[in-house]
Structures are given as structure tokens and as C-alpha cells.
Design a protein that fits this description.
Elements: H1 2-46, H2 58-64, H3 66-75, E1 84-88, E2 116-118, E3 128-129, E4 135-137, H4 138-155, E5 160-164, H5 169-179, E6 202-208, E7 214-216, H6 217-224, H7 226-231, E8 237-241, H8 246-249, E9 254-260, H9 265-271, H10 276-282, E10 292-296, E11 299-306, E12 310-314, E13 318-323, E14 329-334
Parallel strand pairs: 3-5
Antiparallel strand pairs: 1-12, 2-4, 5-6, 6-7, 6-9, 8-9, 10-11, 11-14, 13-14
Bound molecules: zinc ion.
Length: 335
Amino acid sequence: MSKNFKPAYRKQKMVMSTSVKVIIILLCVLVVTLLAFLIKIILSKALDPNIVYPPDSIAETYAADPRTEATEAVTDPEEQGIKVRAIDKTKFDTKTGSLVLVNKDTAYTLPQSVSLVNLYDSLHDNFSLASASEELAKDAYDALCKMCSAYAERTGYCPIMVTSGYRNEEQQQAFYDNYVVNPSDKEYVELPGYSDHHTGLGFDMKLYEKDGSSYSYGRYATERASWLVENHKYYGFIMRYPANKGSFTGIEGESNHFRYVGVPHSVYITENNICLEEYLTLIKNYTYSDPLYITAENDEYCVWYCGGNNVYVPKNEEYSVSGDNLGGFIVTVKL
Ligand SMILES: [Zn+2]
């Protein structure tokens, strides 16, 4: 029995040993196959002519991914336009700036912060005055000097005569009393407190020739002052009371009254045949994330309106802020 037992034991031991060997061999084959597969992949990548080494950094690749940029633009409205910062509107005065509105429904008194220039004391070579007491706000005076110099340079002589600039309420009352002889005269003059002349940005003018003759701007402008007709918009001036806008302005056409509103507003208003009232209504539709773009000669601008508690101004670009005398502010940005 013992003889039979021993060979049976040895046989069992031998069988188990063979199974282990088979498993080890199979594992080795598997590992070798995997290694071969990995080596093949690595070699194929290394030899790919389209891959440039060293590859771009992960950060650069991320920045260049258009999907990443699109996502940021959608989640952050500022990315679609100009970067802005908010300033509390109490830091500004709605009664200062080139776009303040004054008409028969909108009263105005010039803030003390606005400085006036006496045109006689600062008389310019290229325009004349009807009286020594004429005054204008500094911005309007500077623009008038610039425009008259350009006019004289282009044509040899600038015939502009300022006949009436800034008026306070007392002066407007005297003007009104003197002007209104017949009831129909009231269509062409504002009551004290409601005159564009209170801004210091509006003035009446006529054309004064070298021989001493003088002409109304409106009637003779095209013939005698075509340069002025074509170019006043580029110096920030508009005709404040166009003939067909009486329902908006309250004045049934007064062609000799210029008003400084500044570039690019003057260009937009003139080229679109609208009046200041229409422009200030239109501009309320534009925000900093969706501004109005205006081209004036070779310069690009964008304009937007702020009617809430904050005035949004650009972080980086040159800008100006004007009140509209209605509680809102207009931001103008030179691009
Ligand atoms: Zn006037």
C-alpha cells in the first residue's frame, strides 16, 4: 500500500506544479503583449511629424481655446464691450456738461461751477461781437475759436459775429419783453428760466462782411458761408432750432441760434437731421454693454446713457460725462 501511495503523491505534486507554470507563462505573455502595445503607441507619437516639441504649455493652450473665450464672454457682459467701473451718480451734476437740455418744459439755472468767458476781454481775431458784454461757457468759447480759425484759414475771412451769448434770467426777461411785440412773436423766444442761452453753450450769430454789411445766417448761409454750413458739426456745434422740429423744441425754427453739444454728438445730430430733444431720447436706448457708435471725421466714439444710481465710465479709455438736466448722464468715449 505504501508503494502505491508514494507514486500517487508525486504525481499530484507534479500536476500542480504544471498548472502554476502555465499561469505564469500566460501572465508573462500578457505583460509582454501590453508592453509591446505601449511601445508601439509611444513610438508612433514620437515619430508624428505634426507634433512640435516642446509642446505649448497647458496655460497657453487653454487661453487659445475659443470655447473658453466664448464661455467667459457670455458669463461676463463687460467682455463684450469696454471694461467699465461704476461711480455713484452723486459725484456728478446733471446740470453740467455739453448735453444739458433746456426748453419750454425744462427749466435751468447755470451752476456756479461753470465758468463763463467774456468774449470782449478774450476777443478772438476771427470773429466779431455785437456788444462788449457777450459771454460763453469755456467749452463753447474754445470750440468757437477753433472753428473761426479754421474758417479764416480756409476762406481768408470768417464773417461770424456773435450777437447774443449767455443770458441770466433777468437778461432773458428784458430780452423777452423787448422781443415780444405781437403774440406770434412768442413762438421764437423762451420765457426766463427756460432759455437755451442760460447754458452759456448757445448763442445767436449773423454774418458780418468786411464792407460793413450783415446778413442772417439762415437766409444767406448757403450762399455766403457754405464752409460753415458744411463744417460746424465737426467743431461740436448744431443748429438748436431746425425749422421742422418745433413740436420737439418749442421754437418754430431759429436758424441763427447755434448750440455747442460737442463732438461726436454734433455730427450725429446734424447728419441724422434730428434735434437735441430727439437725440437725448434716442440715447436712452444705449448702455455701456450696447453703446451707440459714431464716426466723426477720422475718429471713432461710443456713447451710452446712465439713468440709474451709478455712472459707468471706462476703465482705460479717454471719456467725458455730461448731465442731461433731466436726471441722467451721457458718457462719451473716444476709441
Ligand atoms: Zn438764441
